[in-house]
Specification:
The protein is an alpha/beta fold. It is built from 10 helices and 10 strands. A 6-stranded mixed β-sheet has the order 1-2-3-5-7-10, with helices on both faces. The chain has a 4-stranded mixed β-sheet with strand order 4-6-8-9.
Length: 274
Amino acid sequence: MSSDLASSPPPLQYAVLSFPDPYVMLVTLNRPKALNCINMAGHEELDLLFKWLDNEPSLRVGIITGTGRAFCAGADLKEWDTQNSSQKPRQMPSSGFGALSRRTGKKPIIAAVNGICFGGGFEMVINLDLVVAAATATFALPEVKRGVVAIAGALPRLVRTVGRQRAMELALTGRVMSAGEARDWGVVNRVVGEGHDVVVTAVELAKEIASNSPDAVVVSREGIKLGWEGVGAEEGSRLLMENWWGRLQEGQNIKEGVRAFVEKRQPKWEASKL
């Protein structure tokens, strides 16, 4: 565990936590025999974890990946079947599947897709900030093949990324999409070739983000998210100015960045207080 943490992370039963860089949190889904399907308890613990990430001042970026041959194959259907028999309601946190498919949050999270990314796993990826995928990774929304629907947030978000017709094709056929096709359609940022580690690539990307002003990263992400959530360009710009620009100017990082440029040195950022 990083020695710079100001607080302790919540305990995890279904995932492994590590810190490959002082500013970067890596969470690895760890149910390989179940292809990292997430059960209801898993949703809750991930919700607590990502809330902790946003509140932990020493951390700036998160990464999520999976153990074994899957990133995440979706919901735990065995648990779901048992709950159907018992009439027990299925309730996941407001942040959605894996606490990510509807997450708003404050700090960026990168998906390091190491393999199978189906159902809820794909729903998480669609709402993440950046996506790095192994060349062998595969993506699908197979819910229609099981009589269910990708209801955890993916459908209205997917259409913003790939367009109506492509989103319809994925959602209505349930077909599998390759990593290369996902990149071509704008779902994936980078595809990592054979012989290269997708997590290493994601960590490099996270470190590049973490080297920037943590305040500026938070506010820049918020501006993009406003457009993602359907706000028009002018309205989004107005909201960003009204809700974030003043807070950004009150902090020390904006002053430090300008001063470091004038003094021709690397800036020394403070933990974000936004």
